[in-house]
């Protein structure tokens, strides 16, 4: 492949393009990537902003051939994110092998960067309303199970999160660790917590 | 000197491809490169010899190796180098493909002097038209050719001696980085005396029920949960135990750096 930097100017603009062209000699790698020699990757670089597109032809007058139509946004992807982490930490990419297996790092990453045990929205609600006036409850409505926070000073539901019944055991640690007291069942029965049929669940019933 | 470089180049190509660079070593041409140039005739003879050396490469076999049906010796060698050095294509074009192309172009000076491409080749070698100093011109051409071979030797040598990161080294390095980041993120809390005591206790127990932990530290269950909540689940892992209690253990992924943080201090 050949990669070149082009400075493209006209009367009022000055732009830099980094163009990579795959050649015949790259045929084996092209086959793996599902492309043919002649494929080009075009990057327009302006400071840290890079716009990219790829294809064989970029004729704006042909259907779906213009650079804009052939550009794609980077989508959220654990493999790409792990590769990004790798590129951030290892400066000399020459030293990287041609094939990199990111599976182990991905698994490890999940273990050390999981979301909170108690979801951020619950913590935010508690800090907004104050833990003294809030009570928590676990209830089922139809086939769904819910965790709810009720502002006892206003008898008002301030937070409600549903989960499927199969996940009840899974959400119980989160429910138990929510740092507010559990609502009394007689009090909860007076609250219009769910417009349809509701049934409060006491953890000891599980 | 150049003779030796070309032999080294040939040997390295053979090492990588198991294909001899030349079908037959062009000994006469290689020897003739050292003969002094004093006239246009001798310049023409040397340039022809140099081009003949390039034309004597084992093109058919090398084309098979690269799987590219190239059109000439320059393209064949450029493709070969690109195949062997897939991360250095730009440099190969600039430091090998272009000078060799210019030498082959220069050959036309003696036959098609009015060809405008000749001017390009002369400019490349910094030679004025028409050529007056043939000896100096030959030296300039030889220097560029020699530099091209030096470049190839350097790059192939680098490939032969390059020590790449191995997969487990990459995994290890990134895991360490992620662990360090996590320790840094929670360092303030981890160094608080009461949290440190509780975490050391959990470490020694391996796995403990939260109600037992609260009892051991004479705290309310709700208080110890509230205290440890910011550390869950990345430092302490909380799991279902029964309807009222949970089990707690240190996240195994962070156990090693946490030990280093705590026991490293004690040792220090």
Alpha-beta classification of chain B: mainly alpha
Biggest pleated-sheet summary of chain A: 5 strands, mixed
The profile of the biggest β sheet of chain B is: 3 strands, antiparallel
The number of strands of chain B is 3
Q: Round the mean pLDDT of chain A to the nearest integer and report it.
A: 86
Total number of strands of chain A: 9
Low-confidence segments of chain A: none
Number of helices of chain B: 13
> What oligomeric state do the depicted chains represent?
heterodimer
Task: Summarize model confidence as the mean pLDDT of chain B.
Answer: 90
State the separation between the terminal residues of chain B, measured CA to CA.
Answer: 59 Å
Major sheet of chain B: order of its strands?
1-3-2
Q: Based on CA inertia axes, which overall geometry of chain B fits?
A: rod-shaped
**How helix-rich are the residues of chain B, as a percent range?**
55-70%
The proportion of residues in beta strands of chain B is: under 5%
- What is the strand content of chain A? 25-35%
Structural class of chain A: alpha+beta
> Helical residue percent of chain A?
25-40%
Gross geometry of chain A: elongated
Q: Give the radius of gyration of chain B.
A: 35 Å
């Amino acid at each position: 492949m050949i990669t070149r930097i082009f400075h493209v100017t006209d009367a009022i603009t000055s732009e830099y393009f980094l163009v990579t062209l795959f050649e015949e000699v790259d045929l084996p790698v092209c086959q793996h990537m599902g492309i043919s020699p002649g494929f080009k990757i075009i990057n327009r670089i302006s400071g840290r902003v890079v716009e990219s597109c790829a294809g064989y032809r970029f004729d704006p007058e042909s259907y779906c051939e213009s650079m804009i139509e052939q550009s794609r946004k980077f989508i959220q992807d654990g493999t790409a994110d792990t590769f990004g982490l790798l590129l951030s930490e290892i400066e000399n990419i020459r030293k990287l092998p041609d094939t990199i297996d990111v599976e182990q790092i991905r698994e490890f990453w999940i273990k050390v960067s999981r979301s909170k045990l108690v979801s951020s929205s619950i913590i935010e609600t508690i800090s907004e309303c104050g833990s003294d006036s809030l009570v928590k409850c676990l209830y089922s409505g139809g086939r769904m199970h819910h965790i709810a926070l009720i502002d006892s000073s206003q008898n008002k539901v301030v937070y409600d999160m549903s989960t499927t019944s199969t996940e009840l055991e899974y959400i119980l640690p989160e429910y138990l660790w929510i740092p507010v007291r559990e609502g009394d069942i007689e009090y909860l029965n007076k609250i219009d917590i769910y417009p349809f049929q509701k049934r409060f669940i006491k953890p000891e019933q599980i | 000197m150049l003779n030796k470089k070309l032999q080294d180049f040939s040997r390295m190509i053979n090492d990588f491809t198991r294909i001899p660079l030349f079908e037959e070593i062009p000994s006469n041409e290689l020897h003739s490169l050292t003969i002094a140039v004093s006239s246009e005739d001798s310049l023409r003879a040397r340039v022809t010899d140099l081009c003949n050396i390039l034309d004597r490469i084992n093109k058919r076999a090398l084309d098979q190796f690269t799987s590219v049906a190239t059109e000439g010796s320059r393209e064949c060698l450029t493709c070969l180098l690109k195949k062997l050095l897939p991360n250095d294509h730009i440099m190969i074009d600039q430091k090998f493909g272009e000078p060799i192309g210019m030498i082959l172009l220069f050959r036309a000076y003696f036959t098609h002097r009015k060809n405008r491409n000749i001017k390009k080749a002369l400019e490349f070698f910094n030679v004025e038209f028409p050529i007056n100093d043939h000896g100096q011109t030959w030296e300039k051409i030889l220097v560029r050719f020699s530099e091209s071979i030096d470049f190839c030797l350097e790059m192939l040598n680098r490939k032969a001696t390059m020590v790449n990161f191995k997969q487990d080294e990459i995994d290890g390095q990134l895991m360490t980085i992620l662990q360090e980041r996590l320790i840094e993120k929670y360092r303030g809390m981890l160094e608080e005396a009461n949290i440190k005591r509780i975490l050391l206790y959990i470490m020694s127990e391996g796995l403990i029920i939260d109600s037992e932990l609260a009892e051991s530290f004479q705290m309310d269950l709700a208080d110890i949960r509230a205290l440890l909540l910011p550390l869950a689940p990345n430092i302490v892992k909380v799991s279902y135990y029964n309807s009222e209690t949970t089990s707690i253990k240190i996240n195994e992924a962070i156990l090693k750096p946490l030990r280093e943080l705590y026991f490293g201090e004690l040792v220090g």
